[in-house]
Design goal:
Elements lengths: L1 E5 L3 H8 L6 E3 L2 H7 L3 H11 L4 E4 L5 H12 L5 E6 L2 H12 L4 E6 L2 H9 L4 E4 L1 H6 L4 H14 L6 E4 L5 H10 L3 E4 L1 H8 L2 H17 L6 H10 L1
Parallel strand pairs: 1-2, 1-8, 2-3, 3-4, 4-5, 5-6, 6-7, 7-8
Helix pairs in contact: 1-3, 4-5, 8-9
The structure holds SN-glycerol-3-phosphate.
The site of SN-glycerol-3-phosphate has 9 residues, from helix 7.
Amino acid sequence: MKFFIDTADLDEIRDLAATGLIDGATTNPSLVAKAGRKFEDIIAEICEILPGPVSAEVTATDTETMVSEGRKLAKIAANVTIKVPLTPEGLKACKMLSGEGTKVNVTLCFSAGQAILAAKSGATFVSPFIGRLDDIGLRGMDLIDDICTIFRAQAAFKTEVLVASIRSVGHVIEAAKLGAHVVTIPPSVLRALYHHPLTDKGLAAFLADWETTGQSILDDKDSASSAAAE
Ligand code: G3P
């Protein structure tokens, strides 16, 4: 399962890219507004930091303008993926842009029927928003289960399920269990994935016990040889 980072905050992206675990990024107009910088500059910088797919969303609502916006954004870098909304106009734009060889992420997907339409339109990714379904009392993960089952049954569908609107570590784990191709994770949730109180407690005990041995794994000779190797 690939990890994308769901933010337009360049400091966060730089910091988390250093983990070596990030395969791409997703942005949306709300995240760009929060970042408070010029959209194209943000996308160009993310594309330099991360070699994988970086989603940049169109803001027009008619097909023709969406396609023009998509073509312009796609020129920013080879790894730009164009994000279009799951509307009839957006899916037409998806078909046209995909036909030109541009990767497209169809966003704001809230039903299995919509996901089928995205796959039929040649989308590279479809983004079901699970947190927003949970927010209205539905089970977002049921939608991921349905879409993964359908895409597995339809060999002709090449679209990847990109689980979006992730709010918790549990969402990431559930998406992995269901076989989703990609999760786009907010930085806070990605950091939370590392943590377990028993890890902290266990490490503190190991280090305290090690301290009592008075030993150290590296000695002066090791430091000298690693300095020479550098
Ligand atoms: O990338 C879009 C998506 O992840 C939005 O998440 O938390 O605004 O529902 P959220």
